[in-house]
Amino acid sequence: MPAEGGTDRLYTSESKTWGKAKWEEIDKANAAEARGRAQRAKRGLPPMPTEPYHSTRCGARVCRPGEGNIKHKLDAQGRFKQWEQPYEHREMFVQSRSRSPPHTADPLTTYSGLVSVARRVQREGLVMLAAADFDYRELAHNWWLHARKHGYSNALVYAMDAELPPYLAARGVPNYDGSAQANAWNGTCLQRWIQAVRMERQIAAAALVAAGLDVLLTDASAVFLRPFLPLLRATPADVVLQRDDWPSGAIAKLGTATNAGFVYLRAAGDAQRARQIVKLVDGVVERGLIEFYLRWNNIVDQYGWSLVLASQLTLERTTSEFANDTVVGQLRRGNCVPRERCLRVGLLPYDAFPRHDRYGDWTALAPTAQVYHLPGPSRGLRQRLNRYDEVDFEGMAGALRKAGAWLVPPT
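^ that's the sequence the OP posted. Answer follows.
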């Protein structure tokens, strides 16, 4: 059936569940997109790309990190223009994709290869895991160098594209090619690359827990400044997270949000506890898929973690993002596996695991910080950002250099 604006309706297993009001919303979006195309043609402009482009080759050479990615428009101040995006969103297409993950955290099938590599690198049952693609290659290398500096030989990079493993292997960095798992998200509503990668890493971590391992999942930009594992292991909890400042709904209930890029999952060989953790991560992924439709924000897994814990966790006392103590709580009974102990969740102290610099000066945090995990320089809002560009990566690397946390040798 043609929609308003002349676009045929797209029927999928998802869109077949839509009612009249939803189709009216989609039809209006289709009509707006059609008007946008017509206006561009009237102004003599070429059509916008229907998908964001990405390349690791820039002419005859390898692209610098982020250089081969589609660019967003800047204003006169060098910040991103609101309501400007460099490719068509295709509202109906995105909304009609599956709202379910493409696979489960099965250590025997989908993740058997990752489990095999993780078991080889684990130490005392623990694997440190960071997901990265070729754009993140220098950050992933830096992450591993920091782990090695502190004697952690159990750090493993989960590669999200096929270009990254050869780069890491040439530098002695343990890795696993998870490009097939990452690409499987193409059939879901997480059409932006950042969204898919962020969610894929959560399921991969859960699969390792299901295989009997403990996992510290971190961003590749979260570098280890000190031997922090004793502090982490001393936390009396099964799931331990770094604090954060978004989403606000979690702050209203818990006093803080939680960061999805620094998560410690500890089953300690307990099969019952492992099942509980996998169940919890399943809920995080499910909630993140509900929250996928965010114009400015790609942190679907952080929405999942923060909002699931806000709805299920009772903390032992009130807290905030900037509290310098460890606070622990327990999942409420209705969210646990029947007849099994409910999981305990710990929130790490701000001064040891800061996410934001409340002082405006890293030197105030440096004496106590166990990790450097501050955000990169802000450049404004980018509607429906697919991948970061070279300025983003230069900013992230530059911030690490300024903090004395860059170990990658110059090339």
